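[User] Could I get a sequence and structure tokens?

[Assistant]
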Amino acid sequence: MPRSEKFPFLLLAVLVGVFLLFTLKLFSLRFQTGDIYPPYSTLRTDPLGCKALYESLGDVSASERNFKRVDKLPEAAGTTLLFLGAGLTGREDHSRDSQKEMMGIEDPNETFARELEAFVVRGGRLVLSYRPLTGPPPRAEYDPKTKSTIMNAFASRWGVKFLLDPLHADAKGNFEAANAFLDDKSTRLDETLKWRSALYFALVDPAWKTIYARNHNPVLIERKYGSGSIVLCGDSYLFSNEAMRHDRHPELLAWLIGTNNRTIFEESHLGVSENPGMMTLVKKYRIYPALITLMALGLLFIWRNSMSLVPRLEGGDSHADPSDAAKDAFGGLVNLLRRNVPPPELLDSCLAEWKKTPSNAHAMTKEKVEKAASIVAEEKAKSPVKRDLVSAYRKICKSLSPRS
């Protein structure tokens, strides 16, 4: 292939390579920060994520993520289950209709509550922390008169109501963090916390114990339930990467996790799920060499069918035929003759091959052979412009015919 024809292909290859390089770099940056995941996911490394807490706990105890439904969790005894950044409408990353279709139930929040309840009854510790709210939550059933969010599943089962006490806003409309004070002195935790959520709880069941309160309204509560315990927290900020850097409360985090030696960070309620596919199997069984081999064979197949392995004729392209790609035996024979027999010698070659054929011996008389040779000589004596190989070939065939 001439250099002038190779240049566009090389330029295209370079441009495609640069495009892929920048695309991979962009995805790498997005995955490093983790901002493609929801707030309070342990996969995020920015201030809104909880990866710092996840990795810190992994250094001192068993810490893992869960992407499956709660009823698929392993043994609950000795396990703390953290639901961070939960919404007041349950799995709010999905519409209500899609929840019903996905779970096959009439009320997804009711089943969600039963799943959590079963985990706690078996001896687990549930820490359910809600996303910070400064006012009425979006997409939640809300009563502006009582400032109450209607969550029948949790309220009826656990004896607690969810209420809102809006935070104070400055002149610019920015909400200011309030102070939450320790109510249960037996816990020996910090006396005050900066609280960034308007959510608080009304305790219907006396089994609940207030740990922290804001304006005398419980914002962090705990109760025993079966063999385990439930903790409700109205603000998830204290679990975030930002809090781990600027407003850390290690004693409170240790109390929340409890004495269990295993911590599970729930991710499915945030809309983060695990969907195994072909690449998951490749990674699991480490079959990268086989995959690379198949890709190489595919590239070779494409190359073989897009480029000819036979070199081009130098200076003989004027006789090239567009039907060079013919795959049948006749087309191959024609292409072979055109590449190896020059046009001036074509008639001599045909006559020589005819003489070698045994089946033509009975028709091979001296007079016929001489006549055919004279036709060839006569045609070769003409100038290249006046030659007519097809007409001369027909004359030869007629002279050699048995009827002539």
The two ends are 50 Å apart (CA to CA).
